[in-house]
């Protein structure tokens, strides 16, 4: 386990983020929003069609100009391989949703 760092960064078709009062679905062109994170899975569908899930708890989510930034107090990655597990405490995750990559 380590402090800080980026658990995932890349281009995505869609991102779903758990908030304290529900779930936020983000597609390209989403209006800007700033919200408090709840506990649950950040689900990412990459432009390559892969699914990535990061379990988060606490922090915030920002959406602005097709960029989703999730700054979580705790993150547990479910990504397989590449030493991607057990990243926790004050981690930042950036997901770019680029509308040009949607078919």
Automatic annotation (TrEMBL):
GO terms for molecular function: proton-transporting ATP synthase activity, rotational mechanism. It is a peripheral membrane protein. It comes from the Bacteria. Belongs to the ATPase epsilon chain family. GO terms for cellular component: plasma membrane; proton-transporting ATP synthase complex. It is found in: Cell membrane. The keyword Transport applies. CDD domains: F1-ATPase_delta. Residues 5-74 form the ATP synthase F1 complex delta/epsilon subunit N-terminal domain. Keywords: ATP synthesis, CF(1), Ion transport, Membrane, Transport. InterPro entries: ATP_synth_F1_dsu/esu, ATP_synth_F1_dsu/esu_N, ATPsynth_dsu/esu_N. This is H+transporting two-sector ATPase delta/epsilon subunit. The lineage of its organism: Bacteria, Bacillati, Actinomycetota, Actinomycetes, Actinomycetales. It comes from Actinomyces urogenitalis DORA_12. Its main location: membrane.
